[in-house]
């Protein structure tokens, strides 16, 4: 088991889904990953809830911010000071569509848009330290930026989070890994012609599973969709899917030991 009680600054620490149909999304992910959904009853919580697995927090769920917005999975990076990070975002050419906001005693969040157009969140922890399970089946295990401007993204994230980068060839496509203190914390790939022009730069959340093929079949059975069917990569097997509300996500199957 991979349990966590906190994350270093610059490391993805939490993911949540903003859904056009929260009830349907909760049912779908409960069936797919075995999650339990627990919603905060306080009126000021805005209908936000958390998914748990074996009693441990693994992800969040809430309604879309505005009616008509698409359902999406969001990535949050751990920071020590959301206000200072917001200033760093502006200085690096990004935007701050959601200013730092304290969430009860749980922590402070903010939403940024990088100069290439991708949205990403930050989390300054209070009582809530982030996901209590990660990197195991049923929990998130990878966060990946797809963008049409790799150089601008490297400059932005390097400036804001202090990330360094290691780039290698991934099937003919240059793939960059984000590093914090020499440890890989996420990845980035260029958006080639395989992406329709209307698809904006974005962060994609990966969840570990025992079988990518079984997760793919279960997703379709539950009314979800297929973006890319299961396929092998050098470090395992993945599939890119969507839930019944259209929120994209990926599953990752590690090689058999």
What does this structure look like?
The protein is α+β, with helices and mostly antiparallel strands and 257 residues long. 17% of the residues lie in helices and 45% in strands. An eight-stranded mixed beta sheet has the order 2-3-4-1-5-8-7-6, covered by helices on one side. An eight-stranded mixed beta sheet has the order 10-11-12-9-13-16-15-14, covered by helices on one side. Strand 15 (236-242) and strand 16 form a beta hairpin.
Shape: globular
Number of domains: 2
Q: Quick one: CATH superfamily of the largest domain?
A: 2,3-Dihydroxybiphenyl 1,2-Dioxygenase, domain 1
**Would you tell me the structural class of the helices and strands?**
alpha+beta
CATH architecture label of the largest domain? Roll
CATH class of the largest domain: Alpha Beta
List keywords for this structure.
257 residues; alpha+beta; 2 domains; eight-stranded mixed sheet; 4 helices
């Amino acid at each position: 088991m991979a349990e966590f009680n906190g994350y270093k600054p610059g490391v993805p620490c939490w993911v949540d889904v903003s859904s056009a149909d929260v009830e349907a999304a909760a049912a779908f992910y409960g069936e797919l990953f075995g999650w339990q959904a627990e919603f905060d009853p306080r009126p000021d919580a805005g209908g936000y809830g958390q998914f748990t697995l074996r009693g441990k927090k693994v992800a969040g769920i809430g309604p879309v911010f505005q009616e008509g917005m698409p359902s999406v999975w969001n990535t949050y990076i751990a920071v020590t000071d959301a206000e200072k990070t917001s200033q760093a975002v502006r200085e690096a050419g990004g935007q701050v569509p959601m200013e730092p906001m304290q969430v009860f005693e749980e922590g402070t969040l903010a939403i940024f848009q990088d100069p290439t157009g991708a949205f990403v969140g930050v989390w300054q922890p209070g009582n809530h330290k982030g996901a209590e399970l990660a990197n195991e089946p049923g929990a998130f295990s990878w966060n990946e930026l797809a963008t049409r401007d790799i150089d601008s993204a490297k400059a932005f994230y390097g400036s804001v989070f202090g990330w360094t980068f290691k780039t290698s060839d991934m099937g003919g496509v240059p793939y960059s890994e984000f590093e914090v203190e020499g440890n890989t914390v996420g990845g980035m790939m260029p958006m080639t012609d395989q992406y329709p022009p209307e698809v904006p730069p974005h962060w994609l959340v990966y969840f570990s599973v025992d079988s990518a093929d079984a997760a793919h079949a279960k997703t379709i059975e539950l009314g979800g969709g297929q973006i890319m069917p299961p396929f092998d990569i050098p470090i395992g097997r993945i599939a890119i899917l969507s839930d019944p509300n259209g929120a994209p996500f990926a599953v990752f199957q590690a090689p058999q030991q």
